[in-house]
């Protein structure tokens, strides 16, 4: 300060304002105690780039920018200015940037700082030599007592921490043993559940095999009934077609015979005279009815047989539909049962294995391969 700002140095000497009264906080906290962060970031950047000497540059820049205000202040005013007004001035980032530029322009030679350091050390040694040995010993004794008390306090703290750590470790060990016992019990229960699950799985597989056999038999029976019904329907259709053909032939023959009789009657003069009169139609109808009695009886019998065959055909179709419905219902029950069995296998078996893995903390057990039942054609 005496070199860079001699008038401010003389003013501080007149006020008995020493540097440690305002600059010690700057140096101990790297200006973070009072100044805004935007300024502190710049200072830390310069410190990492330039070294510790930048602290002196920033301190001198602060004093140089505040020189006019400090020259007009008294002792109390100067301390208040350093404590309150100076940090407020650099809340604006532009002011902080200009301060950093000014700090970088200030030259503080390293040799001069080392010279000042040596002078300070020499002055401290001369003060110590001029000091009364008794006072020096008392001060040294007081320092050693403080160090001893500090070491004893640290020893007590370490002993307390050691005892606390032992107690905590013992409690943790007891808790770990209790947890291990609980886990062992859970492991035994899990193993027992696993055995029960495997037994239940085996029973379910046996039941599945039995159900498959039952379904297979029912399916074969239904297929046989379908084939039988299909054969019967084919026979009925063949019989119906034969009856229809026979009926058509008989109708054609009757019609031909009727035409022949009519031609013969028309060839006879007496018969044609009878037909020309009013009763001709009645006689013709009577004769035609007499001639077609046998044909009508045969038609009635054929129609009766046809109706019976149609009734049997309808019953057969109904039985066929019922058989198909029964087959579909059996297939649906089979699919639902297979889904339930597969879901039970996947969920219960996987949950049991995961609980064993969680309880033991070991590698999971490899599940036995499940044999897939052979696919059956429906």
Summarize the main sheet: none
Taking the alpha carbons of the first and last residues, their distance comes to 107 Å
> Helical content, roughly?
over 70%
Quaternary organization: single chain
What is the element string, with H for helices and E for strands? HHHHHHHHHHHH
Would you kindly provide a written description of the structure presented here, covering whatever features stand out?
The protein is mostly helical and 378 residues long. It is built from twelve helices and no strands. The chain has helices at residues 6-15, 20-29, 37-50, 54-65, 67-71, 75-89, 93-105, 110-130, 133-267, 269-276, 280-291, 293-360. α3 runs parallel beside α7 (93-105), α4 packs across α7 (93-105) and α9 (133-267) packs antiparallel against α12.
Short description:
This protein is an all-alpha fold and 378 residues long. The protein is built from 12 helices and no strands.
């Amino acid at each position: 300060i005496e070199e860079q700002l001699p008038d401010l140095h003389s003013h501080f000497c007149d006020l008995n304002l020493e540097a440690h009264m305002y600059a010690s906080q700057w140096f101990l906290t790297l200006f973070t105690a009072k100044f805004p962060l935007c300024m502190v970031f710049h200072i830390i950047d310069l410190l990492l780039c330039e070294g510790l000497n930048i602290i002196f540059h920033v301190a001198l820049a602060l004093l140089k920018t505040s020189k006019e205000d400090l020259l007009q202040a008294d002792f109390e005013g100067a301390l208040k200015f350093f404590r309150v007004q100076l940090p407020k001035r650099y809340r604006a980032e532009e002011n902080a940037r200009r301060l950093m530029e000014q700090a970088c322009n200030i030259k503080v030679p390293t040799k001069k700082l080392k010279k000042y350091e040596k002078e300070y050390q020499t002055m401290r040694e001369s003060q110590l030599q001029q000091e009364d040995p008794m006072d020096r010993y008392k001060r040294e004794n007081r320092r050693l007592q403080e160090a001893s008390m500090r070491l004893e306090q640290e020893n007590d703290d370490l002993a307390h921490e050691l005892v606390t750590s032992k107690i905590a470790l013992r409690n943790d060990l007891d808790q770990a043993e209790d947890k291990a016992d609980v886990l062992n019990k859970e492991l035994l229960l899990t193993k027992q559940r696993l055995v029960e699950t495997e037994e239940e799985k085996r029973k379910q597989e046996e039941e599945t095999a039995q159900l498959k056999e039952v379904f297979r038999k029912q399916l074969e029976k239904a297929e046989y009934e379908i084939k039988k019904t299909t054969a019967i329907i084919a026979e009925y259709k063949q019989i119906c077609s034969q009856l229809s053909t026979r009926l058509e032939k008989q109708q054609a023959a009757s019609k031909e015979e009727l035409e022949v009789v009519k031609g013969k009657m028309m060839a006879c003069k007496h018969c044609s005279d009878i037909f020309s009169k009013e009763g001709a139609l009645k006689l013709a109808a009577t004769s035609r009815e007499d001639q077609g009695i046998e044909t009508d009886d045969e038609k009635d019998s054929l129609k009766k047989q046809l109706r019976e065959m149609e009734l049997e055909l309808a019953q057969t179709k109904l039985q066929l539909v019922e058989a198909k419905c029964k087959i579909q219902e059996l297939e649906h029950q089979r699919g639902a049962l297979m889904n339930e069995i597969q879901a039970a296998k996947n969920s219960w078996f996987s949950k049991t294995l995961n609980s064993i893995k969680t309880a033991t903390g070991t590698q999971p057990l490899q599940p036995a391969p499940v044999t897939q039942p052979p696919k059956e054609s429906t």
